[in-house]
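User: I'm writing a tutorial on reading structure tokens. Could you give me a worked example: one chain, its sequence, then its tokens, then a sentence or two explaining what the tokens reveal?
Assistant: Sure. Here is the example chain.
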Amino acid sequence: MPDRIGSTDPEGVDHGWVLQVTFALTIVVGAPLVALASLGATLPTWSDRAVFAVRIGAVVWFLTAAGVYLYARRYR
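And here are its predicted structure tokens:
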């Protein structure tokens, strides 16, 4: 067995955990939100659909990341 190179003991927020949870929640919650939001929008071309998904997805990603970070900061 190779020697252990090092270990970490993070103080404060574990940013790796925040990234992983943000990724999972954005897919689970964000995809249905984008789909529901697209029902009320006129999206005639594929480029319009892609731009719409990126814009809404970016907002969902940011809000999810901020929420997960604040949760981790308070409870972890």
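What the tokens reveal: The radius of gyration is 18 Å. The chain has a mean pLDDT of 90.
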